[in-house]
Design goal:
two-stranded antiparallel ribbon, 7 strands, three-stranded mixed beta sheet, 372 residues, disordered C terminus, disordered N terminus, mainly alpha, 12 helices
């Protein structure tokens, strides 16, 4: 759940000729770099693509990804696939137990349910397409598909931060106003907070993606990233993008500052309230927000690391892509683990759910052995 910029240049296009797809420089002037090491194969397995540009411009984009790492590609493919499976399995388990176990009917689990759903859709918007890029010579995506991927990736990332903010407010009410908690956090209020999180994310992301969608794309179509990243696609625009950059940066700052300040304010008030409690109450209060505080710290910490590393570290484009992929998938990966380890009720519910399926599985195995 990371917003970042890559300072790269794309001056290549694909040419289909004689049943072969070749990567050619779009601008071969002496001042234009050829980037001879651009990791796109000159031999494509299929010649089904009819052309790079239509009458009105680009008809598809090519996602560069990590295509020139040799044998390392398969290692990264396996790591990313296993991580994606764990993300799907862990978050699906939280959704299942939070929606079926009557004991998990508090607002905290309601918000966790929605956070897990966002994490699943967030990673699904990019990882499957990235996985297909490891097994294809050229990973293409339609123009509409590229902008849909871009929009959902950014919006779901902001939505996750907004839901974390809502969860911080929930912890604030539970610790600072425990007697009024049930009266304040009613189901209509919970639904309103979740709707507000989605609406806030849409407000912060739609202007930037809509402006990028409306721009002309008449030449280079190679996206120098692992997915259709906003800044990478914007570098392919055949027009001035200074206003677009200002709009996107402004809304990104608004999204991060708003969520970050509200979370920080909630925990400052929680800390003040905890300072007035006894030791036993203080430990109990800390236990109720430890998992959420851990997730928030890792989320904002990883985003800050990527932002700083891009501007301070001397990373190659491939290393930048690896870093951004790992840290964008980090929070969805660790959310189920942290909440399962830190929350006794959730851990017991997951154990109970798994025990329901275990006897059936054991019985099936015994039946198979008996028949054989």
């Amino acid at each position: 759940m990371i917003l970042h910029l890559l300072s790269v240049d794309s001056r290549f296009c694909l040419s289909v000729y004689g049943g072969k797809m070749e990567l050619l420089p779009f601008d071969i002037s002496p001042e234009s770099p050829r980037d001879s090491d651009l990791p796109l194969s000159t031999n494509h397995r299929s010649s089904s693509v009819n052309g790079t540009w239509g009458p009105e411009g680009v008809t598809f984009f090519v996602i560069q990804g990590l295509t020139n790492l040799g044998k390392t590609n398969m290692i990264l493919f396996v790591i990313l696939l296993l991580g994606y499976i764990i993300i799907l399995g862990g978050n699906s388990m939280i959704i299942f137990v939070a929606s079926t176990d009557p004991k998990l009917n508090s607002p905290m689990y309601f918000f966790l349910y929605h956070l897990s759903f966002v994490d699943i859709v967030y990673t699904t918007s990019t990882i499957p397409k990235m996985l297909s890029g490891f097994v294809r010579d050229v990973n293409t995506i339609s123009v509409s598909g590229c902008f849909l991927q871009m929009h959902f990736f950014i919006q779901l990332g902001v939505t996750a931060y907004a839901i974390l903010t809502v969860m911080a407010y929930d912890r604030y009410v539970a610790i600072c106003n425990p007697l009024r908690y049930t009266a304040v956090m009613t189901r209509p209020v919970q639904l309103l907070l979740i709707a507000g999180a989605w609406g806030f994310a849409l407000f912060c992301t739609l202007p930037a993606t809509a402006m990028t969608w409306k721009k002309p794309y008449c030449g280079p179509n190679v996206v120098r990233n692992g997915w259709c990243d906003l800044s990478s696609v914007r570098r392919l625009v055949c027009a001035d993008t200074s206003v677009d950059n200002i709009v996107s940066v402004s809304f990104a700052i608004l999204a991060l500052l708003t969520t970050g300040v509200l979370i920080l304010a909630s925990y400052i008030l929680i800390g003040v309230s905890m300072s007035r409690m006894g030791v036993a109450q203080r430990l109990k209060a800390f236990g109720t927000c430890a998992a959420h505080l851990t997730v928030v710290s890792i989320s904002y910490g990883s985003a800050s690391f990527v932002y700083i590393s891009y501007r301070v570290g001397n990373f190659s484009p491939e290393e930048r892509i690896v870093v951004s992929v790992l840290f964008s998938a980090l929070t969805p990966f660790i959310n189920p683990i942290i909440y399962s380890l830190r929350n006794k009720e959730l851990r017991q519910s997951i154990r109970k759910t798994l025990s329901r399926f275990s006897p059936a599985a054991v019985g099936t195995i015994k039946d198979v052995i008996t028949v054989s």
